[in-house]
Design brief:
two-stranded antiparallel sheet; 12 helices; about 25% helix; alpha+beta; 4 domains
Amino acid sequence: MLPKGEKLVENIYETKKLLKIIRLPKKRFMLAKKHCMIFYGADSNLTKCRVCDHDRYKSGRLPYLVMRYLSIAPRLQRLYLTKKTAKQMTWHYEHETEPGLLVHPSDGEAWKHFDLMHPESSSEPRNVRLGLCTDGFSPNNSNTTPYSCWPVFLSIYNLPPWMCLKEPYVQLSIVIPGKKIPGQNIDVFLRPLIDELKMLYTDGVVTYDASTKCNFTMKVILLWTVSDFPAYAMLSGWSTHGKLACPYCMEQHTYRGDTKGFLANKVERSSPLQILTGDQIREQVRHFPTLYEGKPFRAKNAKWPGFGITHNWVKRSIFWELPYWQKLLIRHNLDPMHIDTNVIENIFNTVMDTPKSKDNMNARKDIEMYCNQVQWHTWKKIRLKLGGCVNVDDNSFCKFKSHECHVFLQRFFPISLRGMVPNSTWDAIT
């Protein structure tokens, strides 16, 4: 089967040895059991966590937690080694003024951010724009022991719209191990990535461009993050729970004058919403620690003074270490497909009155305390049921994928709920 004179390697070891010269680099970093720190850089030789004093190893040299990190610079350089791909990496620069093109996240002002913040590189269209995406998933069946694994992906916005989100061009940079979610301490896991992003922005790396057959200094900027709402809190440091959950309004409430739907018998006047600049936000968070959980913050994760009243900050995000972060127009984005999934699960659990329902006694007591909607008070609780497409044994339903949830929410939900809930509720959901 092989060409004449060619020989097949004898075993997997020889195969790996043969492919070693073209393998992309990857690194393993050990972490503290409680996600307090990463044994990296100056702390790489420590045997105990400097935060909680927990041992680094279980027994012998077996670590408690290991994270895989895939360096992004060699992968970005490899995109320029193919003539066709290298040409596509400047697609937006070459098509910026042409009318009738597809709208893309890297178009317009976002595409020009690199030039505004790095004037000496403004003439280099091959500099790379990235977006960071992350979310958790369970590799196990839901009936087994819970386990949450968090991959961190980077999407390359230099490429045309029909290429940038294709599988070969979405790069996996970090695999955050489980079994519990990283929570607000996700910054501990992001440390190697942030350090490399800082290097790629300030110094860059010499890269060969196959389309022009010459070297250039490639520099990189991270435009924003993309996640669902819970992960938004982890990445930004602004808690998405409580009265100040909205990271856009922050402590400003635009609906305080609505006595019927919100606070009962009380009107609070507020000035028009003022959006803070990046410099103003950085000034707010610069005294906060990056680490949220653990002794350097406060015992039992106590909040900073004013939390829930004047602010909802629980930490200073590690992204503020990037020298250009405060100058970006948008720093964190919400993914509607993730939100579709979360919304439909919450509505389903509430309508089906499952154990995960958000319509519980505590929620009813809050409504009674704050709102004039007497029909929703505890003594008037209404239980609704939906038939079909459910497991009648435990009142549950199949776990839909994101796209299925999106279609169901947009197309089927308004039909199935019509006439089963009050018109005002149906209007809001629809």
